[in-house]
Amino acid sequence: MAERQSPLEPELHVGSHGNFEHGVEILLTETRPGSIVQLAAWPGEEKKLIAAIRGVTGLALPDGAGGGLSDGVKSVFGFAPGKFTVTDEAEGLAAAFAKPVTPAIGTVTDLSHGRTAIRIAGPKAEWVLSKFFAIDFALPAFPVGAGRSTTHHDVFAQIQRTGTDQFDIYVFRSFARSFWEALCHASEEVGYEVQ
Amino acid sequence: MLITCPYCGPRDVIEFTYQGDGNRERPDPASQNFEAWNAYVYDRLNPAGDHNEIWQHSGGCRAHLRVVRNTLTHEISSVAFVRGDHSSAARRKAEDKP
After folding, report:
1. Closest chain B residue to the Cα of A155, Cα to Cα
2. CA distance A165 to A144
3. In the CATH hierarchy, which fold is given to the domain comprising A9-32+113-194?
């Protein structure tokens, strides 16, 4: 595999920034998963695709729109009817899905090089993200593991809640640097640390 | 204006793209019926009240939706997937009822 370069690199400044005298309330990291895969089921084949996801990742998707879960290494969530995003710290997820997801069930699209994963964590994560996206980030409306697809200034973003105060955001690689800069600016008021 | 996407829940209209009048019926592509094609392309009801519309949740799940919108008040009285009911994908009940 070719060595992957981060699109954030010129703007990724490790350390504490902004108004952090009273403490750091936001932690920003680039998670750099080895695999980001998008799976789509043909109409009526959703259950077979969900079974294939379970077979490959060991993760049993909960029922319903936007349902998902993460075990810390692998993550999966629904972002549209019959469509799912699956990530893995290791490479090779698309190849693993190629066999169980037959052409009769659906499609596998490898987005590992096409998306950048940014993790925002901390007590003010909901607060900062609420400045970006017009969706409800409160825990009852957006449970742990669930995924949402939405946009920030026409830039498509998929968001998965991977902890009570932790979110993983998947944005287009080509927009990732400007999104990252915006995220840093938005986090300045509460103090943030880049790791 | 908020549109409640059957998959994503209530979202701002900025996430949606209007795909046109939902009352149109496309003639058979092989049809030579000039009047039917003319009606498909040009005839619109333009009602002052409830209007059937097609919207796409382009900034979200990208599903095409059949929406009934009141042209006077912008009230949305119904939203459904254009393609079937996606019953297995419908929004989780537990999330709707806290």
Report:
1. B59
2. 9
3. Gyrase A; domain 2 (3.30.1360)
- CATH code of domain B2-87: 3.30.2270.10
Assigned token pair, A41: 């089921």
User: What residues of chain B score a pLDDT lower than 50?
Assistant: 92-98
> What integer pLDDT is reported at residue B97 of this predicted model?
36
Q: Does the beta carbon of A90 lie under 8 angstroms from any beta carbon of chain B?
A: no
Q: How confident is the model at residue A21 (pLDDT cuts 50, 70, 90)?
A: confident
Residue A149: list chain B partners with CB under 8 A. Answer: 8, 60-62
Question: Which fold would CATH assign to domain A35-110?
Answer: Alpha-Beta Plaits (3.30.70)
- pTM confidence score: 0.89
Maximum distance among all alpha carbons in chain B?
Answer: 55
Nearest to B7 among A47, A63, A81 (CB): A81
* Residue-averaged pLDDT of chain A: 93
Query: Alpha carbon of B10 to those of A19, A139, B67: distances in Å?
Result: 34, 16, 13
